[in-house]
Write a structure and sequence with these properties.
This protein is of the alpha/beta class. It is built from 11 helices and 12 strands. It starts with 17 loop residues before the first helix and ends with a helix.
């Protein structure tokens, strides 16, 4: 009989069966950490599949309830709403209109599923005729003039029922402007989840189709960050902490785990990661072709984000992930 090697350390001892593997698991997830991004559009009786995001839909306000109920039943407790207006103009007035599409959606969501936690994406790209995230001065976005409109947008969403606002525009100073506006109007308890580390990413392509928000000219590289830059990302996160952000977001998620970890380690705030439309569509289309197992890849992507330091995971797979967590397949 061969003599056993005298190995003091045998890491495989802790991998022997599923009970033991779960007992020593380092990264754990809970359904309460999931946020589902949802698109709402003007009109009635609309449930329209988004061509570039199979399985995702645009809902009219009167059809929201069916999806919101599904999410609640699955244990997903948070939803981020994106509005798609009928009319757009140069200053994105639909973003802060009291009867705007997303404001109507917040009111309806509070009526039909009051237990849901509602988050408002604060930006103007869906509402401007030129598709940029602020008002223009010539061919450039005017940062400082845009701040007032972003603050008005955040206020209108909170007044309509949003529990949290999430500015995604990447204008300098927008967290401070929104915090001042909300505090002045008495909404001192409403948190801000800032898209602090948001890159000019090719992963956003399907979202621009979903929200009809592609810029009419140029691109967004003068305000979204260059994906080559690490120190700039940490600078942006630090500035948002100073301005009063309550939660910091890294976007996209999958290719930016290094920055999720660095933001987590260098700040004392919760960190969110947005698994964006391109990540979702790559999984769906590759799975449809039979090259990968959709559920396994979805779970692995989520685990990688949480392993990197994510506290809040914004994903179009929220409902499916919640089921996997409940079944013990992940988390």
């Amino acid at each position: 009989m061969e003599k056993n090697l005298e190995l003091v350390r045998r890491p495989r001892r802790l991998r022997g069966n599923s009970v033991l593997r779960k007992m020593v698991r380092e990264t754990r997830m809970d359904r309460s950490s999931l946020v589902y991004p949802m698109f709402v559009t003007e009109g009635t009786n609309i449930k329209e599949e988004i061509s570039s995001m199979m399985g995702q839909y645009r809902y009219s306000v009167d059809r929201m309830e069916e999806k919101l109920t599904e999410l609640c039943d699955a244990g997903v407790t948070s939803v981020m709403l994106f509005g798609i207006p009928d009319q757009k103009d140069e200053v994105g007035s639909g973003a802060y209109a009291q009867d705007g599409i997303v404001q109507k959606a917040f009111r309806r969501a509070k009526e039909v599923c009051p237990e849901l936690y509602l988050i408002g994406d604060v930006c103007m790209c869906e509402y401007t005729s030129h598709g940029h995230c602020g008002v223009l001065h010539g061919q450039e976005v005017d940062n400082d003039k845009t701040l007032e409109l972003l603050a008005k947008t955040a206020l209108s969403q909170v007044q309509a029922g949003a529990d949290m606002v999430a500015p995604s525009d990447m204008m300098d100073g927008r967290v401070a402007a929104i915090r001042r506006m909300l505090d002045q109007k008495g909404y001192i308890q409403v948190p801000i989840m800032s898209y602090s580390v948001k890159f000019a990413s090719s992963f956003y392509g399907p979202f621009r189709d979903a929200a009809d928000s592609a810029p009419a000219f140029g691109d967004r590289k003068s305000y979204q960050m260059d994906y080559h830059n690490r120190r700039e990302a940490l600078k942006e996160a630090a500035l948002d902490v100073e301005e009063g952000a309550d939660i910091l977001m890294v976007k996209p998620a999958m290719a930016y785990g290094d920055l999720i970890r660095e933001v987590k380690d260098r700040t004392n705030l919760p960190v969110a990661a947005y698994s964006v439309s391109g990540e979702y569509s790559m999984v769906k289309t590759t799975a449809k072709a039979g090259f990968i197992d959709e559920t396994s890849v979805m779970c692995e992507m989520a685990a990688s984000a949480f392993r990197a330091g994510t506290d809040i995971y914004i994903t179009y797979f929220a409902q499916e992930l919640a089921k996997c967590i409940e079944e013990g397949r992940i988390g």
